[in-house]
Hints:
Layout: E1 6-9, H1 17-21, E2 26-31, E3 37-42, E4 45-46, E5 52-57, H2 61-68, E6 71-77, E7 85-96, H3 101-110, E8 124-137
Antiparallel strand pairs: 1-8, 2-3, 2-6, 4-5, 5-8, 6-7, 7-8
Amino acid sequence: MAAQPTRVGTALPASHRDLLDAAGVGVVATIGRDDRPQVTAVWYLLDDDGVLKISVRADRQKAKNIARRPEVTFFLIDPAKPTRTLEVRATAEITPDDDYAFADRVGAKYGADMRAFDQPEHRRLVVALRPDRVNSRD
């Protein structure tokens, strides 16, 4: 079987919109304090503004890593066709989600209450992934 070409750009491709809209699990790689990758499975949402975003707790290692070094990679694999992938190398932007407005929308996508995962003292953050390079493979 011939290798499928990889498309490269900076926009999220329409060809992989179904994966972004699905309630799948993505992988986010951040850079740890020791300059080694730290990888975490995450829920995600392609927001109404067209920006790929994740909800994270402020006390989690990935949030600390992103605050220190905003370079991240987000990766998706199509469960129906594992050779079909989407890699988004991005610069992350963090904003507070103190009222859980974004977390509630992520939870609705996945049929879960994000507040149930947190204690009253926990804070949520929205991490927007601004693509620097997007690689997609069919």
